[in-house]
Design goal:
The structure holds two protein chains of two kinds. Helix content of chain A is 42%, strand content 21%. Chain A is built from twelve helices and 13 strands. In chain A, the strands form two sheets. In chain A, strands 6, 7, 8, 9, 10, 11, 12 and 13 form an eight-stranded mixed beta sheet that branches. In chain A, strands 2-1-3-4-5 form a five-stranded parallel beta sheet, with helices on both faces. In chain A, α3 runs parallel beside α4. Chain A starts with a helix and ends in a 10-residue tail after the last strand. In chain B, α1 packs antiparallel against α10, α2 crosses α9 and α10 packs antiparallel against α11. By secondary structure, chain B is mostly helical. A two-stranded antiparallel sheet of chain B has the order 1-2. In chain B, 74% of the residues lie in helices and 2% in strands. Chain B has a domain of 211 residues. The chains are: A alpha/beta, B mainly alpha. At the A-B interface, α2, β7, α7, α8 and α9 of A face α1, α4, α5, α10 and α11 of B.
Chain lengths: 378, 306
């Protein structure tokens, strides 16, 4: 499948290159296309491919590889893309542990990396890099928004997240803005699917609400088990466990849950409407937040390509930094550490006909940056 | 810490153990009788879950889905045995691992091709929804109690099957001396197919039961398979009794570790650090237990007769 796709894209871009007599711009895309986390990577890939195709820019060639959510594999693929494919840009990684394995080494070899999702704190602060652009968020952001939102209604929240970089960023972010007392704090295993032991502790903790960050299948399992456990406390979380890719599998258990995100399909702007329409027409499903971020990544690259030659790194970086594209998130600018400054919204899971989806109910932060920007000396 | 919480956690451990037993029983049965290491056992678990989710979505009945999961996994198992596995009995374990690992990749990508990359929806049947009160003021999810019940029924059923029936006698005979029972006129090839299908059906049943609790997605079988291997190594490879004891041991140790270790460590270090270290230690705990048991009893708790 990957080979066919790469080959067809290759063929496409080769005919295009022949016509334009220019070197194609090679973009390496490492993302998760197999295993439990594949839904996230598929949305990322699909939006990226669609955005480039719709742009009519035929100079772009995508080299797409599956990392199977394994850091060691992602590192090998990155090396191959840099050394033998000689890619100009790289993007695609979903998971923070994979990003930590790949990004520092990639940017050190003077390849520009644009993150469509992962935003570990380590890369936003002291280890920021001129070749690293995060188009999605800094990991803490959505969780900070939920901490802020929780202050309205709750005084004793129980918080849990998986034990990996993004999980730690999550709870740190939540605690940065949350003023109430914590009923408990738990780290679970990455890939864990049974949460009976954790739910029992939530029940016994005397909490008045639960905040959790469990992306992919972990969140589906948690929500289903939580709904059946009879605990019944209100649930809060970042959008990852209530995104369009997992909602059908969670089912009605997710109804009414408040979650935070930088984008939702009902966001009122032209770019977003156009994106949702194009994605739905092409793939027959609603796009997730991963697709939205990936779409923005593609459009950011296209905006920079229109201004500068990708081989002229300084000019291209400057063009990227201007962020002169129509983001589906509305207003979007880069901070000095090349992470986004954007609004973070609070959404609620609702039912539209038979389809579970999200509706924006408020804004947690306007033009929100991240907490690590001061540490970045760039 | 209240008594209700402790009881609830013990039940959680027991339920996890029972779940592992359903997967491990088939794995250890197949190893005991055929001497085959079947890495694709986790894929049969996945097939059961997908069959249940697909049929439940089409018909609206979880119970039809459950029946379909047994049927689909047994059929897939029988087909695998006849088409591929049969050629592997005489080969060494490395060839078996290689071939069944290839099967994992084929079945995973095949399932993705059929059902797509996004998780499927499978809910608990209305009859088993909700929670029941526990002594001491706690509550426990009814569906998990039902899983414990299914596990007990399967354990008793397997015991009766193996010790009381003609098929069971042949399975035991096949375990001890393959040539001899073939010489006595028992159709050993059919027997192997039946045993393989039985093991597969158990894995499929486990997949369907867990699918309603967790998420039905490609790749769900591999984490379960790793734990199932830990279980049969602890229990003694080839022993059903060992699988039962090993599964419950792993289930209880894992659950209690996740629950108690951060609390114990919090006595000696700051709470947030204790949470991190405790979570890391808890994830290693069952492997530490496995290493200890293997150091004391290298062939597991109930090593087979072979």
């Amino acid at each position: 499948m990957r080979k066919i796709l790469t080959a067809s894209l290759l063929a496409l871009s080769m005919t295009a290159a022949g016509a334009a007599l220019a070197d194609p711009v090679k973009i390496g895309v490492i993302t998760t296309l197999s295993g439990g986390g594949a839904g996230l990577g598929v949305d990322t890939r699909d939006a990226l491919v669609l955005a480039f195709r719709k742009s009519g820019n035929t100079d772009v060639e995508l080299v797409i590889e599956d990392d199977a959510q394994k850091p060691e594999l992602a590192v090998q693929i990155a090396e191959k893309m840099i050394q033998s494919d000689k890619v100009d840009l790289m993007t695609g990684i979903i998971w923070s542990n994979l990003a930590m394995a790949v990004v520092p080494n990639t940017v050190a070899q003077d390849v520009i990396y644009l993150s469509p999702n992962a935003g570990p704190s380590a890369l936003a602060g002291a280890n920021c890099h001129k070749n690293y652009f995060n188009v999605a968020y800094q990991n803490d952001n959505f969780h900070e928004a939920m901490g802020q939102y929780a202050n309205q209604d709750y005084k004793k929240t129980f918080i849990l997240a998986p034990n990996y970089p993004a999980g730690k960023d999550s709870l740190t972010g939540f605690k940065r803005y949350y003023k109430g007392e914590l009923a408990g704090e738990l780290y679970t295993q990455v890939g864990q699917t049974d949460y009976a032991a954790e739910i029992a502790q939530i029940r016994a903790s005397g909490a008045d609400s639960v905040f959790f960050f469990l992306p992919g299948g972990m969140g589906i399992a948690f929500m289903k088990q939580y709904a059946q456990s009879g605990v019944g406390l209100p649930v809060l979380g970042p959008s990852f466990s209530f995104s369009q890719d997992v909602l059908p599998a969670v089912g009605d258990a997710a109804l009414g849950v408040k979650n935070s995100a930088s984008w939702s399909k009902d966001l009122d702007n032209e770019a977003s409407k156009e994106f949702v329409e194009a994605f739905q027409a092409e793939y027959g499903r609603l796009p997730s937040i991963y697709a939205a971020q990936s779409w923005d990544t593609a459009n950011l690259i296209l905006s920079a390509l229109a201004k500068a030659d990708v081989k002229d790194k300084d000019a291209f970086r400057a063009a990227l930094k201007e962020a002169d594209f129509k983001s589906v998130r509305g207003e979007f600018t880069f901070n000095t550490n090349q992470h986004p400054i954007q609004n973070i919204y609070v959404r609620e899971v609702v039912k539209e006909g038979d389809v579970l989806t999200n509706k924006i109910i408020g804004t947690a932060f306007e033009k929100h940056g991240d907490a690590y920007v001061e540490q970045c000396k760039m | 810490m209240s008594a209700a919480l402790l009881i609830e956690q013990l039940l959680n451990g027991l339920q996890l153990g029972v779940m592992l037993f359903l997967i491990a029983a088939g794995l250890t049965l197949i190893f005991g009788v055929m001497g085959l290491i079947n890495l694709a056992h986790g894929s049969l678990y996945m097939i059961g879950a997908f069959a249940c989710a697909a049929v439940a979505a089409a018909t609206g009945s979880f119970w039809l889905g459950l029946a379909a999961s047994l049927g689909a996994a047994a059929a897939a198992g029988a087909l695998m045995e006849v088409a591929i596995i049969r050629r592997l009995y005489e080969r060494d374990h490395l060839d078996q691992v290689l071939a069944t690992f290839a099967l994992i990749l084929i079945l995973s990508e095949g399932t993705r091709w059929l059902f797509g990359s996004f998780p499927l929806y499978l809910d608990i049947p209305p009859l088993l929804q909700g929670a029941v009160p526990l002594p001491g003021g706690g509550q426990y999810q009814l569906y998990r109690l039902a899983i414990i019940g299914v596990g007990i029924v399967v354990a008793v059923g397997l015991y009766l099957l193996i010790s009381r029936t003609r098929l069971g006698m042949r399975i035991r005979a096949g375990e001890s001396d393959r040539e001899m029972i073939a010489a006595l006129g028992v159709d050993i090839r059919t027997l192997y197919t039946v045993v393989f299908a039985l093991g597969a059906a158990l894995a499929g049943l486990a997949g369907a039961l867990v699918g309603a609790l967790q998420s039905v997605q490609v790749g769900m079988g591999e984490p379960a398979l790793i734990l199932a291997f830990v279980v049969i190594v602890i229990g003694g490879i080839g022993s059903i009794k060992g699988a039962l004891v090993g599964a419950i041991l792993v289930g209880v140790v894992d659950t209690m570790g996740r629950f108690l270790l951060p609390k114990l460590l919090a006595l000696t270090m700051p709470a947030s650090q204790a949470n991190l270290v405790g979570a890391a230690l808890a994830s290693m705990l069952i492997y530490i237990v496995m290493a200890l048991i293997l150091a004391l009893r290298p062939r597991g708790l109930f090593a087979g007769q072979a």
